[in-house]
Amino acid sequence: MAAPFQGQVFEGKLKKGEVQAVFARGPQPFVAALRVKAAFDGAGRFAGFRLVFIKRESPLYGSASVGPGDVITGINGLPIERPEQFMSAWEKARDADTLEIDVLRGDTPVRYRWTLVP
Fold first, then answer.
1. Which of 30, 44, 100, 111 keeps 20 to 30 A from 12, CA to CA?
2. Distance between CA 103 and CA 52 in Å, rounded?
3. Sequential DSSP letters for 62-99
4. What's the rounded Cα separation, in Å, for the pair 79 and 91?
5. Which of 99, 103, 89 is nearest to 48 (CA)?
6. What pTM did the predictor assign?
């Protein structure tokens, strides 16, 4: 069983149709609109992917939540360290009623949780 999340949680709502449109295009265009680099903790262990740059065509562009400098550590409670983990998280999030993105902002864990509404 995963440990309870220890950090700030921000909740909001997103239009399900808009989120489903992103998933319908597939993961390749989503990832191609981001520049990321691997981020490591003080012990040299993988921590997540640091957002370096977000292209204008990304659904994250101009977001009031996740942005450059943030380290994405998980999606809907799933790790994204390896490509197959990212794909598993992508597939499970596609049909979910909520979307959660866990990030490290500096040393602070932050979870963005959006309820998907019609």
1. 30
2. 13
3. T-SSS-TT-EEEEETTEE-SSHHHHHHHHHHHHT-SEE
4. 13
5. 103
6. 0.86
pLDDT digits (tens, 9 = 90+) for 2-40: 667 888 999 999 999 999 999 999 999 999 999 999 999
- What type of residue sits at position 85? Q
Task: Report the distance separating Cα 42 and Cα 91, nearest Å.
Answer: 31
- Residue 78 tokens read as 């799933």
The residue to which tokens 């003080």 are assigned = 42
Residue of 80, 79, 74, 68 lying closest to 106 (CA atoms)? 68
What's the angle, vertex CA 88, arms to CA 64 and CA 52, rounded to 5?
Answer: 35
